[in-house]
UniProtKB/TrEMBL annotation:
Protein's recorded name: NAD(P)/FAD-dependent oxidoreductase
Keywords from the UniProt entry: Flavoprotein, Oxidoreductase
Domain FAD/NAD(P)-binding per the UniProt entry, residue ranges: 6-290
PANTHER family: THIOREDOXIN REDUCTASE 1-RELATED-RELATED
Biased composition (Acidic residues): 348-362
């Protein structure tokens, strides 16, 4: 491997991608994360629903710590945007399979993990700030608005359902269509008429905030002022599947990347994890998907144990064949604070300078 060739390249530095990179790195694979920055998790004012992480940790802090952890184990993290991918199978089954292009570099990889996420469709202003009255994750943020006045924006079934779901947390829920005609189904309309949700059809003229920047109220075009502490816009999502489509990955009917239970796509060697795949858009779910994909890739690429067929072809494993870690990754591992018995800087120096210990003859 060279500085631009890796066992694994992860595209996307959110919770799913960083977790996948953590596992592949700690399981002995040279790994790079190529991340353009931003993303849904990076926008979080506070972190919710992640056990062991307190509310006062922002999304940026959460991701920054995660990236530092991944780098400490020996992965590389590059701040670049991957604009292209192509399959370039190596001469043998374990050679480089993919090339990924950015504006400034080309990366080769034996396996690729797509953790490219999605973007929420943002409603037109006037709006409160994201995280201070404008929220996109019901499962993350509904708890915040217990016994508070809440709005939901949208005209489809999903908006109507979220408005009714919020009645589990508060008795004051309005559904704002913002001057548009409702598009929800007849069954949904009947459900709405039998739940205490008020449908407000006028568009918003202004958003008022308190001294901390939190939403206080909306002023509507008919002159009415209604108090809200926060709410949820429901206008859909745009999945970032350009790279997946470019390499031939199959998509589901809802536009996500089709994967199995370990993140494998329809293209051999390409995995996908996190919000760009089907399922709940939650940090713990994304982290679990990243972990499972990382383990699956390790099992796919690890050279040992050598199979019976491999032994017939290549012979028995000799002491000179092991360990399978690259020189750089081995040096990082033995010098890491988590190494058994503490960091071994002397062993790391030996590895880095090529002063290998003599191996026993078979």
């Amino acid at each position: 491997m060279t500085d631009s060739e890796y066992d694994v390249v992860v595209v996307g530095g959110g919770p799913a991608g960083l977790t996948a990179a953590l596992y592949t790195t700690r399981l002995g694979l040279d790994t790079a994360v190529v991340d353009r920055g931003g993303g849904r998790a990076a926008m979080m004012q506070d972190t919710h629903n992640v056990i062991g992480v307190t509310e006062d940790v922002s999304g940026g802090e959460f991701l920054g710590t995660a990236a530092e952890q991944v780098q400490s184990y020996g992965a590389d993290v590059h701040r670049e945007f991957v604009g292209g991918i192509e399959r370039v199978d190596g001469e043998d089954g374990d050679g480089l399979r993919f090339r990924l292009e950015t504006d400034g570099a080309t990366y080769g990889a034996r396996r690729v993990v797509l953790a490219t996420g999605f973007s929420d469709v943002t409603p037109d202003p006037p709006l409160p700030p994201t995280g201070r009255g404008l929220h996109y994750c019901l499962h993350c943020d509904a708890y915040m608005f217990a016994d508070e006045p809440v709005y939901v924006m949208g005209t489809g079934d999903s908006a109507a359902y979220v408005a009714m779901i919020m009645l589990n947390f508060t008795d004051d829920v309005d559904l704002l269509t913002r001057g548009e005609d409702p598009e929800w189904s007849e069954d949904t309309d009947e459900m709405l008429r039998n739940h205490p949700v008020e449908v407000i059809r006028e568009d918003i003229a202004a958003a008022n905030r308190d001294d901390d920047g939190w939403l206080e109220s909306f002023e509507f075009e008919d002159g009415a002022v209604r108090e809200y502490r926060g709410g949820f816009p429901m206008y859909g999502s745009e999945y970032n599947t350009d790279l997946a489509e470019a390499v031939g990955c199959e998509l589901t009917d809802d536009g996500t990347i089709d994967v199995d239970d370990h993140g494998r796509t329809s293209v051999d060697g390409v995995y996908a994890v996190g919000d760009v795949t089907p399922g709940h858009n939650q940090i713990p779910v994304a982290m679990g998907q990243g972990a499972k994909a990382g383990i699956a890739i390790h099992m796919d690429l690890r050279p040992f144990p050598r199979s019976v067929e491999g032994i017939d072809e290549m012979g028995p494993v000799s002491s000179g064949d092991v360990p399978a870690l690259s020189r750089e990754l081995l040096a990082t591992a033995v010098a890491h604070e988590g190494h058994a018995g503490g960091p071994r800087t002397d062993a790391a120096d030996d590895v880095e300078t090529g002063d290998e210990q003599p191996a026993d003859d078979d």
